[in-house]
Amino acid sequence: MVRIIIEDLVFRPQGRPVIDGLSATIGSDGITAIIGPNGAGKSVTLRLIDGLLRPDGGSVKFGDRAPEAVRRSFVFQSPALVRGSVRQNAALALMPLRLSRQEAAERLDATLYEVGLLHRADDAARKLSGGEQQRLALARALVIHPELLLLDEPTASLDPAATAAIEEIIRVAAQDGTKILLVSHNLGQVARLARDVLVLSRGKIIEHGNAEAIITTPRTSEARAYIRGELPWTSFAAAC
Ligand SMILES: Nc1ncnc2c1ncn2[C@@H]1O[C@H](COP(=O)(O)OP(=O)(O)OP(=O)(O)O)[C@@H](O)[C@H]1O
């Protein structure tokens, strides 16, 4: 179980405050979505939590566990696949685990089956469709049996059917006990999947709570504007 405690996190490249004193305690189960307008700092927050970026202040703690003891995976919006087969791509993630050959093969088959790619295991990864490539990226993330899975807009460029397939994989992973942090602009997806939501604006959390409550009745005007899709020129156009 991974509880994430973020305290006064600051990321300030060249002095520009991108993340500006962000604090939150994120519960150890279910799916937590991070939403907010472009440039709010969602991806940076995910990277700071994962340790891909170093903060300029504050901390991210996983309860009382050392960060390196928390098995975790990160899936990006565009899957970075290497040359080789579907199976070889997924197998890369297993290398640090030093499993026996048989155990690794069993795990790979089980995970490729879960994401619906076992029948494509020997095909070239780069020949997969966008949705299949993202399922492979998820297989590579899930094959290590992560305790924490960080997903940065995993369905941003996918059609509804491919999105539904990815959402089902995410749902099953969460049911199996993986804690999931999901950055998404797809509020339907957030409503379908998330238990709780963090709303970011200009590097700060402006709301954190139950997903349904935040999506249906956001408290702050900024969250309301984002969720209702108010664009800056809406009121200007109305005034003309
Ligand atoms: N590694 C980095 N170093 C310095 N600045 C960065 C880095 N990554 C992102 N930024 C800057 O931080 C700001 C927030 O970026 P971020 O990608 O976190 O936004 P976001 O909320 O995920 O936006 P979007 O919804 O458009 O993906 C941007 O101005 C971006 O240019």
TrEMBL record:
Keyword Nucleotide-binding attributed: yes
InterPro entries to which the protein is assigned, alphabetical: AAA+_ATPase (IPR003593), ABC_transporter-like_ATP-bd (IPR003439), ABC_transporter-like_CS (IPR017871), ABC_transporter_ATP-binding (IPR050763), P-loop_NTPase (IPR027417)
One MF annotation (Gene Ontology) recorded for this entry: ATP binding
Pfam families: ABC_tran
Keywords from the UniProt entry: ATP-binding, Nodulation, Nucleotide-binding, Plasmid, Transport
Keyword field contains Aminoacyl-tRNA synthetase: no
Signal peptide: none
Domain ABC transporter, residue spans: 4-227
Gene3D superfamilies (UniProt xref): P-loop containing nucleotide triphosphate hydrolases
Protein family: Belongs to the ABC transporter superfamily.
Stated name of the protein: ATP-binding cassette domain-containing protein
Organism the protein comes from: Microvirga terrae
